[in-house]
Specification:
Layout (H helix, E strand, L loop, with lengths): L16 E2 L4 E4 L4 E4 H6 L15 E6 L2 E7 L5 H26 L4 H6 L1 H19 L1 E7 L2 E8 L2 E8 L3 E10 L6 E9 L3 E3 L5 H20 L1
Antiparallel strand pairs: 1-2, 2-3, 4-5, 5-6, 6-7, 7-8, 9-10, 10-11
Helix pairs in contact: 2-4
């Protein structure tokens, strides 16, 4: 019996299903469901590959396909001004004062390194929340996941024939900041991506990739 989580579409393991108690529990989503509802009341999949949500796209190429989405979000309205203020005060206070006085203090400069790293991370998130994209492109046997702005960003290569499953998972982002969701390509190489996508665009990419995977296996 195959039972999938209605939230992340992952195939549940046998230890997540309790027939006697009529329950199904998804470890990734940390959600419990009534098993009989998942089995008997499943609605037909209404996913339309040709009808992507705003900010997402799909296209066939000569020897493959490309599916992507923008990481633009409303959080940019908060992240950008916060980053400007935070990096301005921290870096300006540490290094600006040294430049203004014309005196270099190596201890203070070393103390400022974590603030430089923090500013780089914050600015990366801020820019991604405005102009970023996440793209999966398959050309023949080769595939590539790209997350970035323009041609600048992180690239992860893989072999399309080695992908066994595509799913969404929940993971801890650390530092007591709660849980986030991302997409996963499972196979000989495990690739994660799509953290900054909103739910609608991430779901579209998930379903589009699963559809292409199913077509690959049916050939």
């Amino acid at each position: 019996m195959e039972v999938r989580c209605p939230k992340c579409d992952r195939l549940l393991d046998s230890d997540e299903i309790n027939i006697g108690a009529d329950t199904a529990f998804c470890k990734d989503c940390d959600e419990a469901y009534k098993l009989s509802d998942l089995i008997h009341d499943r609605k037909p999949d209404s996913f339309e590959l040709e009808d992507p949500p705003d900010g997402a796209w799909f296209g066939l190429t000569a020897d493959g396909f490309i599916v992507g989405a923008r990481t633009r979000s409303k959080t940019g309205c908060f992240i950008v001004p916060f980053t400007i203020v935070w990096s301005g005060f921290s870096l300006g206070g540490i290094y600006g004062m040294q430049i203004a006085s014309g005196e270099f203090n190596i201890l203070i400069s070393i103390f400022g390194i974590p603030f430089i790293i923090g500013s780089v991370i914050l600015w990366s998130m801020a820019l991604m929340s405005i102009w970023g994209i996440t793209v999966v492109k398959v050309e023949g046997a080769l595939g590539r996941v790209f997350s970035g702005i323009g041609s600048l960003g992180m690239k992860k290569a893989f072999y399309w024939s080695e992908v066994d499953d595509i799913r969404e998972e929940q993971y801890s982002s650390g530092n007591n900041s709660g849980y986030r969701r991302r997409l996963v390509l499972e196979g000989k190489k495990r690739i994660t991506f799509g953290t900054m996508l909103n739910d609608e665009r991430r779901y579209y990419m998930l379903k589009a990739l699963k559809k292409m995977l199913a077509e690959r296996d049916n050939r």
